[in-house]
Amino acid sequence: MLDLIATPDNPIPPGATPLSVVTRDGRRLRAASFAPPGEARGTVAVFQGRAEFIEKYFETIRDLLARGFHVVTLDWRGQGGSERELANPRKGHIDDFSFYQRDLEAFIAQVMAPSHKEPWFALAHSMGGSILLERAHSRTRNSPFQRMVLTAPMIDIAGLRFPGIPRTLADALDMLGLGAMYVPGGKDASLLDKPFEGNEMTTDPARFARNAGVLAAAPELAIGDPTIGWANAAFRQMQRFTLPDYAGRSRTPTLLVASGRDKIVANRPMERFAQRIDVASLIAIPGARHEILMERDELREQFWAAFDAFIPGTVEEESRAAE
């Protein structure tokens, strides 16, 4: 699926161009580019979290366009309008997070590099933040982004009283060949198919309903719960974040934005991780649930104030970061 989907309360931002990206292992991904009306200040690449889709970020894209940025984005493999990994299109599956690096490589080469103005910046949420941190950490592939803003990055999962148990279980079940099965209790239903009451994503009922309306109009964009394979891959990636020298390898100035009421990702591991990066800072937005960009206006305004203070930065700051 290549086309972007508009609904009455979620119109397509201006300057939109739907795009197709093909990874080196042959996966076809949906991407899009949004041009500002005048000369761009640079390019912001928006990277979504698990189970999300481009349309969910239309409001954020309009906010970035209003700031004078060219905006590009994609659906990760296995979700949104991109090619699925399994026959059941509702299963959010991956065998290893390294495959997301292939998506990122193809997106940079086929969408960003040909025509998008530098400097390049990244805005990533949750799982997207994990993928961007892995790229920034790599010794063989430098991050192409001058600065990154990560909302609720998936450094660790919240609420795991005995974290070793689910990690060991996921690994054992995956080793037994059950990786394509849902995690225990998992279903095809999307989080947006469920009632607003009790959701852990946002306190804003209007934005929750807007996003649910997109899936009502285009249910093919939705995925359900993660598979055992995805969970095991996520646990392996999060284990990498705990390595003593991991965080210190990143030289990309990074702003991590924590949600004060997050029950999806854990904030304390995020704080410890940020402290180990010389070029990182962390702020918390009290009252926000996991999806800061889908929150109430007063909470989103706090985010945008932090974003505007951090992006685009200054030449002097970039020179200090490179030292």
Could you explain the architecture of this structure?
The chain has nine helices and eight strands. The protein has an eight-stranded mixed beta sheet, with helices on both faces. Helix 3 (127-137) links the parallel strand 5 (120-125) and strand 6 (147-151). It is α/β, with parallel strands linked by helices and 323 residues long. It has one domain (16-322): Alpha/Beta hydrolase fold, catalytic domain (Rossmann fold), CATH 3.40.50.
Structural descriptors:
33% helix, Rossmann fold, globular, 8-stranded mixed sheet, alpha/beta, 323 residues, 8 strands
List the helices and strands and how they pair.
Blueprint: E1 16-22, E2 28-34, E3 43-47, H1 58-66, E4 70-74, H2 98-115, E5 120-125, H3 127-137, E6 147-151, H4 164-175, H5 205-217, H6 228-241, E7 254-259, H7 267-275, E8 280-285, H8 297-310, H9 315-322
Parallel strand pairs: 3-4, 3-5, 5-6, 6-7, 7-8
Antiparallel strand pairs: 1-2, 2-4
Helix pairs in contact: 4-6
What gyration radius follows from the Cα positions, in whole Å?
18 Å
Helix content: 25-40%
Percent in strands: 5-15%
Order of helices and strands: EEEHEHEHEHHHEHEHH
Number of domains: 1
Through-space gap between termini:
44 Å
Strand order of the largest sheet: 1-2-4-3-5-6-7-8
Indicate the overall shape.
globular
Total helices: the number is: 9
CATH superfamily: Alpha/Beta hydrolase fold, catalytic domain
Under CATH, the topology can be stated as: Rossmann fold
Uncertain spans, ≥5 residues at pLDDT below 50? 318-323
Secondary-structure arrangement, i.e. CATH architecture: 3-Layer(aba) Sandwich
How many runs of DSSP E, i.e. beta strands? Answer: 8
> Mind telling me the CATH class?
Alpha Beta
Indicate the mean pLDDT. 93
Note the main sheet: 8 strands, mixed
Structural class comes to alpha/beta
